[in-house]
Amino acid sequence: MRRDHGGDIDMAAARYGEGDWIDLSTGINRRPWPIAELEDHAWHALPTAAAQRRLTEVAATWFRCEPSSVLPVAGASAAIQLIPRLLPRGRAAIIAPSYNEHAASLRSAGWTITECARIEDMAGADLAVVVNPNNPDGREWQPELLTELAGQTGYLIVDESFADPRPDLSLAPSLPENAIILRSFGKFWGLAGLRLGFVIAAPAMLRQIAESAGPWSVNGPALEIGAAAMADHGWADAAVMYHSEASLRLDRLAMSVGWHPVGGTHLFRLYDAGDAIAAQDRLARAHIWTRRFPYSDRWLRLGIPGSSREWDRLIEAFHSF
After folding, report:
1. Do the beta carbons of residue 72 and residue 240 sit within 8 Å?
2. Distance between CA 218 and CA 101 in Å, rounded?
3. Does the keyword Ribosomal protein apply (predicted)?
4. Which runs of consecutive H residues, i.e. helices, occur in the chain?
5. Looking at residue 238, what is its pLDDT?
6. Whole-number Å distance between alpha carbons of 105 and 80
């Protein structure tokens, strides 16, 4: 069964024609961290324990937690598929609407799902799942509230895939014993093809995840590139500044055609476009791909353009509205 996701640029091209597409259907940074040339051993040898330790230490510094609480994995999506199969099955409460892969993975693993509009409604669940900040509406919850929720549930999964520009939201520095944090690398650093992410949890849980993931679950180039990118705080500061300003610029552009901001994060914005199908179609005819959602005929999500050329094309497309 096909699951609803952004990034389906092949489908867009099949419908609207091949060409120079701008894919704004995801929340992936379109100004990626610049990859330098790698040493041959990253490509030709199996990943080393030293390379994994280096990435773990750099990541722990970025997340503001202990290295013993950090496990590199082959993308946050890999952890989303794996963790529900490691925990005892029961009732999972999920904030909705949210990233749909959590519910799909839990159902596949035999969990019963309860969708909740508020954090307060999740108390008593065997597992609570919160995406913070939330995808697609950008709702956010402070760590103190999530810590309180952890005390009212069996386990708590917090997906912080879009939290890199917002360290104040992260639960990592004060991790409850029963909490599991998921972090993406590909979104903020713009290198989704690397398939790198992290699980932050108690060491016993990390050992269980690592055993289930198997040896060499993260490839050598990902270990090397991830460590270098996450240590480049100057680049990260510039990326946060750019997206802070660019997200406001995108809001102004959307409002100029009558769209109403619903929310978002540094890396994407969500709008009430009135007729989302028509709005997506209009932009697609200019080879700009955006994201609709099956549960709303009004919401349209746009990622942040990454260059002046992309901004110019988007502005020109909006002039046709």
Report:
1. no
2. 21
3. no
4. 9-16, 40-44, 49-63, 76-82, 101-108, 143-150, 186-189, 203-213, 220-230, 233-255, 276-284, 308-318
5. 98
6. 7
Percent of the chain with pLDDT over 70: 99
Contact 102, 80 (CB under 8 A): yes
- The residue with tokens 């065997």 is 126
Residue pLDDT, tens place only, 231-264: 999 999 999 999 999 999 999 999 999 999 999 9
Do residues 137 and 270 make contact, with C-beta atoms less than 8 angstroms apart?
yes
Evaluate if pTM is beyond 0.90. Answer: yes
CB neighbours of residue 128 within 10 Å: 29
Question: Tell me: the pLDDT tens digits for 88-137?
Answer: 999 999 999 999 999 999 999 999 999 999 999 999 999 999 999 999 99
Q: Is residue 309 exposed (0-12), middle (13-18) or buried (19+ Cβ within 10 Å)?
A: exposed
- Report d(CA 317, CA 309) in Å as an integer: 12
Alpha-carbon distance of 153 to 199, in angstroms, equals 19
